[in-house]
């Protein structure tokens, strides 16, 4: 069985991978809806696969179905209550703006119907400047300031959402290692690391647009996962290790929270831009990938 220090290290690495999502911003701030939706679908499939193969199945093997079900319900409730209580921003499109994602549609005057398609999402790459312009073509500095402020608030709120989601993920890592099967812990840590990349991207883009330097953005996105996940992993590991027979309930709790994240955030965010088939195919691929990872690491 691995030590607490090793669990914290693994969780810190898995959480810190969130920072990789900011790396593309060093080269471009444009990304297609298809790519983004596919990334979210892949992350969702991996998370569901991790919840099923690395948590629920082992929980059923070591406990009763009632214990696992109770944990799943408690975990889902925990995530939903956290979403309702803590201020954050869901990753979704609204009107002509994209909240919490990499893509922002150009501002459109509703009364004029101006714009490429009247303000509706086209599913194309778009990160055009959203600042208003005056009749003589000069930039409206007040509009620029307000837009930057909106982007900064958006980055902060998206960062809050990412941090909220990293708590149950960290718990899952710690609980999985506490089962005594290191392979389960490494499998779920791998899954979480992969799905953390699009989370980091969603947080990084509005931060860069708000004027935060790319270096600081990389640091903040890394910390958003690299701090809460090892703390939560340590708590989950210590709790299950100290309380005999708690693993089935704890595993169900982590699985329920992760599945709630998928259906509350990732699935809706990946199905609003006309690429639902791409997101669905990526989801299936992610689920299959997690099955392979779990099988290989369990050998």
Automatic annotation (TrEMBL):
Membrane topology: Multi-pass membrane protein
Feature: compositional bias, Basic and acidic residues: 130-152
UniProt KW keywords: Membrane, Transmembrane, Transmembrane helix
Region (Disordered): 105-152
Coiled coil: none
GO cellular component, as recorded: membrane
InterPro entries linked to this entry: ZIP
Protein source organism: Natrialba hulunbeirensis JCM 10989
Subcellular location, record wording: Membrane
Name under which the protein is recorded: Zinc/iron permease
Spans through the membrane: 6-27, 39-60, 66-86, 246-267, 279-298
Molecular function (Gene Ontology), one example: zinc ion transmembrane transporter activity
Organismal lineage: Archaea, Methanobacteriati, Methanobacteriota, Stenosarchaea group, Halobacteria
């Amino acid at each position: 069985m691995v030590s607490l220090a090793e669990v914290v290290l693994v969780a810190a690495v898995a959480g810190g991978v969130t920072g990789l999502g900011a790396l593309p911003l060093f080269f471009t701030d444009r990304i297609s809806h298809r790519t983004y939706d596919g990334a979210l679908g892949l992350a969702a499939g991996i998370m569901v696969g991790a919840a099923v193969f690395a948590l629920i199945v082992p929980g059923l093997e070591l406990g009763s179905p009632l214990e696992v079900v109770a944990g799943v319900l408690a975990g889902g409730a925990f995530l939903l209550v956290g979403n309702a209580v803590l201020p954050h921003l869901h990753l979704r499109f609204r009107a002509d703006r994209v909240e919490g994602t990499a893509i922002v549609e150009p501002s459109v005057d509703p009364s004029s119907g101006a714009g490429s398609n009247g303000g509706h999402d086209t599913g194309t790459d778009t990160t055009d400047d959203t600042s208003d312009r005056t009749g003589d073509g000069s930039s409206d500095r007040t509009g620029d300031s307000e837009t930057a402020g909106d982007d900064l608030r958006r980055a902060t709120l998206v960062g809050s959402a990412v941090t909220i989601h990293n708590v149950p993920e960290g718990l899952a890592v710690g609980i999985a290692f506490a089962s005594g099967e290191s392979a389960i812990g490494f499998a779920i840590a791998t899954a979480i690391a992969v799905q953390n990349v699009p989370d980091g991207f969603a947080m990084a883009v509005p931060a860069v647009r708000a004027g935060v330097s790319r270096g600081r953005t990389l640091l903040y996105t890394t910390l958003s996962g690299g701090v809460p996940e090892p703390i939560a992993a340590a708590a989950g590991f210590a709790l299950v290790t100290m309380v005999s027979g708690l693993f089935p309930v704890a595993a169900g709790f982590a699985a329920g929270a992760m599945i709630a994240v998928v259906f509350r955030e990732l699935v809706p965010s990946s199905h609003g831009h006309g690429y639902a088939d791409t997101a669905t195919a990526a989801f299936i691929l992610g689920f299959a990938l997690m099955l392979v990872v779990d099988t290989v690491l369990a050998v």
